[in-house]
Amino acid sequence: MTSRNQQLFERAQRHIPGGVNSPVRAFRSVGGTPCFFQKGVGPKVQDADGKWYVDYVGSWGPMILGHAHPDVIAAVQAAAVDGLSFGAPTEKEVEIADLLCELVPSMDMVRLVSSGTEATMSAIRLARGYTGRDVLIKFEGCYHGHSDSLLVKAGSGALTFGNPSSSGVPADLAQHTMVLAYNDPQQLADAFAQHGDRIAAVIVEPVVGNMNLIAPTPEFLKAMREQCTQHGAVLIFDEVMTGFRVGLKSAQGLFGITPDLSTFGKVVGGGMPLGAFGGKREIMEQIAPLGPVYQAGTLSGNPIATAAGLATLKLIQKKGFYEALTAKTKALCDGLVAAANKHGVAFAAQNVGGMFGLYFADKCPGTYEEVLACDKDAFNRFFHAMLDAGHYFAPSAFEAGFVSAAHGEADIASTIAAADAYFASLK
User: Fold this and answer.
1) Could you tell me whether strands 163-164 and 152-153 are parallel, antiparallel, or unpaired per DSSP bridges?
2) Which of 315, 346, 363 is the last residue in one of the domains?
3) What is the DSSP code string of 185-219?
């Protein structure tokens, strides 16, 4: 009998480009037919065929409490009864703004938006308006949403400006973005030495999650802060993925680095479309209606999204929450590595808080080049074997994974056992 996943995918392709509303969902990186999910409970999701999986994607990070947490669902249901949208201020906007500024010490003021892309796009415009400069520095392998000025790739040399990596992005726009190597403080210093008076901002994923998981070196983090301070540029931490994922004070609290602006998404919305950007008061006061930098959004601060976000942010403050989450994630990584080692498979894994990376390589990569050198075909075979066994990992070798508070020891043990069986079959 034809899988309902297959039927839905064929139907979807008639009216949705590629059959999906975000490219990675199409499974083109790993091959095969994507899962169409219809239900999530705790650490598990159910596809259209009724098959259950232990879920290590969690909607790409937001489901830090697991799927359908009763407190979050109750908050959303209660909010929905009072109306879905107003396009006007609500009390919940004020509540979540207060809470975000309390939890993230670097933020004096915050503005709510509807997505992570919107948050980073707005933060960059604000940084350019505040400094009166045009040039943006980003790093290879870091993704900051699909706004035009960020869809660029590196040129031929270390300090060359970017060229568009997506059709539809004007070269004139992309030329204002400089792409450097992640974890290379010297290259960053050279860029500032040559172009310091033109650089508006440096934007970075403080823990990269969009070329698999790459952890920053302390030297790299320190260099970004020092160079931005010295040259009057704005340091933007893109914490859309890491925000409240790696610790209660996010990556900036974990590493002890204070950015000028921060962007958030995913966890802050509790699974609903919600993003935020914020930072120093003197910068944020340049946003309209206080200042000349325009930013707007009809659905910004949506009452349903803020309700889900508030419920989530309340629960993650529970004592010991992050210690337990980090321990679970490390147990998964260590167990998978031990299983691979037992069968002589080149495999490495690491985690930062509730985020993790899996690599078919001898060691965890620290750069974009090292990520590309990992065995992508080996990952694809692993992905499908684990999917068949009922364990859902990110359908790409270049994406981080996520563990939730709902994952229990038995879930993680079953995943390690399935991986062990697969690694054994490779002999």
Assistant:
1) antiparallel
2) 315
3) HHHHHHHHHHHGGGEEEEEE-SSB-SSS-BPPPHH
- Please indicate, yes or no, whether residues 107 and 194 belong to a single structural domain of this protein: yes
> Closest Cα partner for 240 from 208, 214, 216?
208
Which tokens go with 23?
């490219």
Residue 190, domain extent: 70-315
Same domain? For 176 and 303 the reply is yes
The model's pLDDT over 239-269, given as tens digits with 9 standing for 90+, comes to 999 999 999 999 999 999 999 999 999 999 9
Q: With beta carbons less than 8 A apart as the criterion, state whether 82 and 109 touch.
A: no
Q: Give per-residue pLDDT as tens, 313-366.
A: 999 999 999 999 999 999 999 999 999 999 999 999 999 999 999 999 999 999
pLDDT at 164: 63
DSSP 427: -
| pLDDT tens track for 105-136 | 999 999 999 999 999 999 999 999 999 999 99
Rounded to whole angstroms, the Cα distance separating 96 from 104 reads 12
CB 76 within 8 A of CB 242: no
Residues 311 and 323 in one domain: no
30 and 44 housed in the same domain: yes
Q: Closest by alpha carbon to 394, among 53, 12, 147?
A: 53
72/343 Cα distance (integer angstroms): 42
CB 207 within 8 A of CB 192: no
Residue 346 makes CB contacts below 8 A (sequence gap 6+) with 340, 360, 361, 362, 375, 378
Report which residue type is found at 33: T
**Phi, psi for 332 (deg, rounded to 5):** -65, -50
375 and 358, same structural domain? yes
Which residues form the catalytic set? 143, 238, 266
Q: Do 247 and 328 fall within a single domain?
A: no
Strand arrangement of the beta sheet that strand 261-264 belongs to: 109-113, 275-279, 261-264, 234-239, 199-204, 135-139, 177-180
Beta strand 152-153 with 199-204: parallel, antiparallel or unpaired?
A: unpaired
Sheet holding 37-41, edge to edge: 37-41, 44-47, 52-55, 391-392
Residues 6+ apart with CB under 8 A from 335: 412, 413, 415, 416, 419
Is the C-alpha dihedral spanning 143, 148, 151, 153 positive or negative? negative
Q: Domain ends where: 261, 290, 315? A: 315
